Recover the amino acids of this structure.
């Protein structure tokens, strides 16, 4: 009896996967579900090094144009307070502004694969926006991830895509939201991103906790969203180099 | 008629006769009664001989002595130590940079003249680097380094540096991470350079300071300085290996004598030393002195306890004298077998003191009891030996066998402790059985001559009624007591799984030793561990290739290799055209001289440098690259906590001095000195000639090459001090993934813990099996296994108490479990023995037997606890934990015997095998101590 009931519940989901086992279609669905036109958030980033030391940063973040442009401003600790990182062109261009010396430095696009401000996220991880352009995908399986029925995809970067060899991505079958990503180079499992604490805010379901575990460095970075809104579109002037040195209210 | 009733002399004579039928009783009784003086004289001669041997015992406090000899990893480790040596003496000079450098300049040549030192590494070979610096640069940094020196004027050099920073580091935290060590070292050189520039600009130093400033910027600071530049290290490799303890200690003393002699001329410098050699010396001083003091304290305490129990001062002396004889015999035999004492066997004196005294107590008690009953001396001796002596021998052999099981240990430390403790117990047992009876007989004869041969009849000892009452309660309420026991055992088993393991060996050393404190301080102040793992390579090129692989590992902080001094021919062939062009074309250019506007240009470049360094520091801060943060923040004056800037720091001060404008002509000689020196340096640094090992300074060659044989040593330095299993394993697994031949103390600690844990487990199981067999044999049936109940409960409770007291497992206290099995079993054996002999029933039987035997095992437990308790006061925390654990274990076994065994007997009660014997073959009367 229980088996029959379970089959009734699970079968439709499996049927959905079977009918649409096209990886590209899944990437489109995920992209559509996670696309956020613009947002403002307050984040707490905690980096734990392999030696066990911990550094915590509080950051204000604005994004627009479906994530193609963004601005992050450190709030704490005091050493880096009011330092800002501006990202344009979908992560191809970065600028760092240091409040204490009132100087701005440009980061070239070739550094996208490098660690973003000491965290276990690379700049390209943070800028991961256009899935359908950056990856091709193949459906591998279905699985239950953190109690949610998910589809498991193998995502291979396109020529213009990120520097990884491939990713394994788990996304909810019903909500199409990413639950976990494993990052690989040719031979190694490099990192694992786990998304959790999903909440619906202003009609959008988003993960409020992202944890990136770096298996090679034995370090981890947790990015928690303390507050967020999608209702107000940030002023476009915010995403300019000239605005970096201005005080943001 | 009980054996304690008066008028039983005929029965006792019969019993004595029975005992005399045993050959060994006859022989020992003969020696005591007919050859007492001769026997004692022979014992004296033998003891003197053993004392002579014991005096030659070396004390080897090095933990590497405890490692398993036939373990491949250990053999490799020893091979490296033997062939290459290690800098086991490290001198640390603390103070202001100029003061510690001045002392180091005087001290280093004197150390180099010491014949007992194989190598001294203090100042880096500046002239060698001046002649080959660019040839030694890694390919990814070659072009940009040359680019940055294309203009060697003061302004041009700073501009080149700024361009380079902005190109390579400011934009990339990953580049900083990759080059962290080189960047930090380079920044220390830059700090020195800017410091001299600032002093010269202000007039505090003359223009000649610019020569050193140019050297510091182009070649770096030649001394191994801490990141705060307040500590300087000089590494000394002794000729003596770590196995040659005496020579090593002598070398440490010689080095320290020179160090303190030079320090007398440098009052502002605090000089101290560390390293394995120095720590060994400190340990020997600590342990040696403490062993004597603690042994004396233990002796006094035991003497006081015995004086109270025996109500006199002579008997305790008679009890202790044979024990000391046994201990000296043991030391003599240990010298013949091993020639030295290690960390474990050094504890033997105290362990034997606590254990051996029990044998004397049991025998003297029985002798006094027999004499008190007016038995003839020869009957008293026979009964003492054949009666109580049999039980003592069984108990002693059980303990010795438990110790001998440690011989299955793979680690030397555990093996040697097994041999030493097993032999020690047997030799002490033998010494007591040979020496104590003649002493008792002679004393009895002396009393007889004084007319006191028949002392007042000893009244039967009443024992301790409270112990009997507790045991009776256990009998009456077995459910309650067993439930309580179950709770304690359950909680202890939980605790066993939650007690941590101590992988930080410094936590096992004595507190307050400067040599130990420095071990922890140096990694923090220098940004890398002070000791390295090693890999032997066959060629310079192999060293180079491995270095490049290892330096990318997250757990690795630095890699030092002979290839750091010898560029590859292929690389040099690639470099040569650019180097020659730089020499021929670039350096022949006429650069603009210092002129109007140069002041402002210099100020701009200094400000730009300030910006770049501050930005680099922020990048390093977010990335956790603390070494870079610390060095830069000293220059910029940034307080990491507040983000505020100290305007008196180096760069703000220099910028202010330049921005405020300088008197005309001040800068011209400074700039000219700078340009002249840097140009000269660059002309030599761009030398495209090949470098062979013959060109490398000898002390550097000795760092990487063996004293005998071939090969090169690669030094792989962990990123920080590794103190936990996860860190040690991560370092080991990352380095072994590149080559399994990587060896070092980090890996040895893992081997040692794993092996000691395995040894402890195996020995405990074997000890348990041996004890079970002996119990089955002695009690002639499986009911003898009941003696294991208090032992099991006591041992598990001991482990639970470790958790309660916040203790952790370490390589020393891990072997406490098999040891406590050997010691703790005695309580159960004596209690079961006595219970079996008791001739009444029910609760009375338990109450009375425990009333008497409880007192005896309490006394023997207390003496053993005094022995182990004194170990617990060692300054060396590892050794102390060994004593603390056994102290808890002995106490727990006593309590388990009194609290648990009666309840178990009640549950088992009525078994025919436990019914009282009508005529016990062996009567254990050790309870009658009064």
């Amino acid at each position: 009896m229980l088996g029959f009931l379970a089959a009734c519940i699970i079968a439709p989901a499996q049927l959905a996967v079977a009918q649409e086992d096209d990886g590209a279609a899944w990437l489109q669905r995920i992209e559509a579900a996670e696309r956020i036109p613009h947002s403002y958030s307050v984040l707490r980033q905690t980096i734990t090094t392999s030696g066990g030391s911990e550094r915590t940063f509080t950051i204000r973040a604005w994004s627009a144009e479906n994530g193609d442009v963004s601005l992050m401003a450190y709030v704490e600790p005091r050493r880096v307070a009011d330092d800002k990182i501006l990202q344009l062109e979908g992560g191809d261009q970065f600028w760092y502004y240091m409040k204490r010396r009132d100087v701005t430095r440009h980061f070239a696009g070739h550094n996208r694969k490098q660690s973003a401000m000491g965290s276990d996220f690379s700049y390209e991880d943070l800028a991961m926006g256009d899935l359908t352009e950056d990856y091709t995908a193949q459906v591998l399986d279905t699985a239950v991830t953190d109690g949610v029925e998910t589809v498991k995809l193998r995502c291979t970067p396109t020529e213009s895509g990120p520097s990884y060899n491939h990713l394994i991505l788990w996304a909810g079958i019903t909500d199409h939201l990413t639950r976990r990503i494993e990052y690989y180079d040719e031979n190694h499992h490099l990192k694992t991103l786990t998304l959790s604490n999903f909440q619906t805010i202003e009609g959008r379901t988003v993960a409020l906790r992202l944890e990136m575990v770096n298996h090679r460095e034995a370090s981890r970075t947790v990015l928690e969203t303390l507050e967020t809104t999608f209702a107000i579109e940030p002023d476009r002037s915010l995403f300019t180099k000239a605005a970096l040195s201005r005080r943001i209210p | 008629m009980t054996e304690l009733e008066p008028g039983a002399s005929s029965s006792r004579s019969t019993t004595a006769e029975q005992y005399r039928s045993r050959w060994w009783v006859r022989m020992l009784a003969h020696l005591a009664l007919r050859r007492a003086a001769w026997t004692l004289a022979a014992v004296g001669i033998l003891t003197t001989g053993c004392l002579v041997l014991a005096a030659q015992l070396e004390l080897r406090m090095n933990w590497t002595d405890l490692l398993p000899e036939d373990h491949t990893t250990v053999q490799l480790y020893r091979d490296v130590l033997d062939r290459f040596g290690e800098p086991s003496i490290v001198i640390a000079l603390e103070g202001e940079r100029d003061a510690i450098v001045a002392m180091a300049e005087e001290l280093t040549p004197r150390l180099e003249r010491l014949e007992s030192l194989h190598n001294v590494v203090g100042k880096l070979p500046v002239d060698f680097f001046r002649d080959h610096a660019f040839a030694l640069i890694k390919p990814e940094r070659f072009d940009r380094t040359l680019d940055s020196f294309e203009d060697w004027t003061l302004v041009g050099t700073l501009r080149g540096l700024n361009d380079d920073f902005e190109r390579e580091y400011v934009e990339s935290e990953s580049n900083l991470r990759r080059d962290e060590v080189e960047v930090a070292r380079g920044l220390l050189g830059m700090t020195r350079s800017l410091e001299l520039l600032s002093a010269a600009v202000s007039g505090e130093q003359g223009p000649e300071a610019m020569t050193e400033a140019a050297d510091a910027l182009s070649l770096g600071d030649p001394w191994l300085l801490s990141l705060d530049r307040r500590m300087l290290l000089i590494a000394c490799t002794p000729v003596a290996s770590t196995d040659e303890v005496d020579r090593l200690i002598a070398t440490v003393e010689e080095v320290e004598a020179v160090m303190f002699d030079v320090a007398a001329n440098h009052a502002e410098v605090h000089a101290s030393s560390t390293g394995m050699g120095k720590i060994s010396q400190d340990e020997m001083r600590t342990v040696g002195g403490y062993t004597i003091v603690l042994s004396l304290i233990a002796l006094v305490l035991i003497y006081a306890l015995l004086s109270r129990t025996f109500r006199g001062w002579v008997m305790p002396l008679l009890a202790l004298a044979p024990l000391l004889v046994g201990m000296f015999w043991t030391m003599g035999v240990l010298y013949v077998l091993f020639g030295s004492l290690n960390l474990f066997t050094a504890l033997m004196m105290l362990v034997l003191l606590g254990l051996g005294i029990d044998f004397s107590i049991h025998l003297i008690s029985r002798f006094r009891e027999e004499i008190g009953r007016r038995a003839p001396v020869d009957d008293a001796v026979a009964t003492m030996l054949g009666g109580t002596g049999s039980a003592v021998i069984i108990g002693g052999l059980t303990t010795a066998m438990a110790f001998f099981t440690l011989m299955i240990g793979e680690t030397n430390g555990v093996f040697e402790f097994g041999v030493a403790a097993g032999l020690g117990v047997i030799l002490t047992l033998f010494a007591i059985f040979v020496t104590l009876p003649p002493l008792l007989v002679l004393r009895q004869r002396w009393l007889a001559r004084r007319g006191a041969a028949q002392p007042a009849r000893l009244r039967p000892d009443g024992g301790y009624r409270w112990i009997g009452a507790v045991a009776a309660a256990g009998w009456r309420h077995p459910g309650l007591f067993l439930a309580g026991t179950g709770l304690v055992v359950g909680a202890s088993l939980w605790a066993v799984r939650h007690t941590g393991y101590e992988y930080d060996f410094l936590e096992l050393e004595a507190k307050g030793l400067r040599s130990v404190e420095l071990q922890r301080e140096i990694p923090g102040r220098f940004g890398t561990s002070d000791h390295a793992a090693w890999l032997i390579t066959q060629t310079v090129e192999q060293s180079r290739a491995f270095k490049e692989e290892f330096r990318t590992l997250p757990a690795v902080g630095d890699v030092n290799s002979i290839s750091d001094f010898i560029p590859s021919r292929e690389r040099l062939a690639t470099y040569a055209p650019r180097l020659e062009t730089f020499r021929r074309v670039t350096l022949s250019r006429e650069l603009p001289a210092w002129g109007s506007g140069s002041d402002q240009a210099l100020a701009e470049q200094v400000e730009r440098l300030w910006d770049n360094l501050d930005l680099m520091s922020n990048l390093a801060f977010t990335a956790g690259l603390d070494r870079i943060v610390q060095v830069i923040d000293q220059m910029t004056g940034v307080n990491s906590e507040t983000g505020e800037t100290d305007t008196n720091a180096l760069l703000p001060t220099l910028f202010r001095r330049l921005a405020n404008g300088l008197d005309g002509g001040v800068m011209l000689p400074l700039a000219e000195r700078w340009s002249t020196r840097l140009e000269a340096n660059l002309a030599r640094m761009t030398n495209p000639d090949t470098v062979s090992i013959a060109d490398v300074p000898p002390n550097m060659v000795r760092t990487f090459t063996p004293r005998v044989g071939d090969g090169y040593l690669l030094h792989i330095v962990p990123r920080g001090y590794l103190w936990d299993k996860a860190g040690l394993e991560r370092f080991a697994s990352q380095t072994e993934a590149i080559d399994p031949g990587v060896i070092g103390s980090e890996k040895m600690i893992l081997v040692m813990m794993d092996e000691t844990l395995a040894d402890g487990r195996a020995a405990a199981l074997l000890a348990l099996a041996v004890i079970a067999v002996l119990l089955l044999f002695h009690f002639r049936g499986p009911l003898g296994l009941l003696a294991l109940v208090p032992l099991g409960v006591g041992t598990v409770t001991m482990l639970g108490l470790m958790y309660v007291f916040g203790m952790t497992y370490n390589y020393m206290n891990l072997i406490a479990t098999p040891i406590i099995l050997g010691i703790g079993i005695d309580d159960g054996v004596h209690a079961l023995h006595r219970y079996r002999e008791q001739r009444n029933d029910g609760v009375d039987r338990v109450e009375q037997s425990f009333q008497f035997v409880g007192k005896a095992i309490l006394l023997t437990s207390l003496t053993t606890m005094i022995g182990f308790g004194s170990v617990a006061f060692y300054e060396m925390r590892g050794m102390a934990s060994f004593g603390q654990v056994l102290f808890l274990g002995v106490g727990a076994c006593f309590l388990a015997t009194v609290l648990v065994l009666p309840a178990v007997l009640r549950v088992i009660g009525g078994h025919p095998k436990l019914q009282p014997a009508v005529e016990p073959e062996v009567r254990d009367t050790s309870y009658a101590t009064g």
